[in-house]
Amino acid sequence: MKFLLGKKLGMTTLFDEAKGALNMTLVACDPNVVTLHRTADKNGYLAVQVETKKTKKKNVAHEFRIGKDLDKEALAGLASELETFAPGTELKVSQFEVGEKVHVTGVTKAKGFQGVVKRHGFRGAPASHGRKHDMRKPGSIGATFPEHVIKGRRMAGRMGGENLTVRNLSVVYVNEAEGLIGLRGAVPGVNGRIVKITSAK
User: Fold this and answer.
1) CATH number, domain at 157?
2) 73 pLDDT higher than 80
3) Are residues 73 and 39 part of one domain?
4) Residue 49 located in a structural domain
5) Which residue of 5, 38, 106, 197 has the smallest Cβ count within 10 Å?
6) For residue 136, is it within any domain?
7) Once rounded to an integer, what is the mean pLDDT over residues 116-122?
């Protein structure tokens, strides 16, 4: 299993002789340091905690779980993987190769309180035939029976600011000297936010 913490820098274009122009997101990955382990006997799950720089004065740490949703017997078989990540070990972008598939987890951009058209993609009402001031209203939110709003009804509310994992992004660029990795496509979050990169397999 491969994993890394990095800071999203933004999107750019990479020109490939075979595929042409590729849209990619650049992520700056300072050396990650393994700080501690979570074991099945003590914590009930297997994980490695990794720490990296967020700013000049502040560090950030995240856990990467090994073998999610497995019973104790299955976790015991994976315990040997923790030995390869001894505390103090440095993890760098060199562990990833061009063409490899990865999953990227980050916090999406916060949009604030939004209506149903932007939040859920509602079509809205026609703008003609006597309509006035209600083109973006949600319309009816329930029937006469059962006389209450059913749970899960799509309505206006806070949008964004949630954890999101984008799966199977291709690694198209690796620069070990500068600690940069390029991922084809978009990565969740604003520029400067910490994202988690894990191998797809």
Assistant:
1) 2.40.30.10
2) no
3) yes
4) yes
5) 38
6) no
7) 97
Per the domain annotation, does 145 fall within a domain? no
How confident is the model over 145-182, as pLDDT tens digits? 999 999 999 999 999 999 999 999 999 999 999 999 99
pLDDT of amino acid 191: 96
Q: Which domain holds residue 104?
A: 1-29+92-113+153-201
**Confidence class for position 108, pLDDT limits 50, 70, 90:** very high
Using the predicted structure, report yes or no on whether residue 37 has a pLDDT greater than 90.
no
Do 178 and 167 fall into the same domain? Answer: yes
How wide is the angle at C-alpha 74 spanned by C-alphas 37 and 63, nearest 5°? Answer: 25
The answer to whether residues 48 and 85 touch, using CB atoms and an 8 Å cutoff, is yes
CA dihedral 184, 189, 191, 194 (to 10 degrees): -90
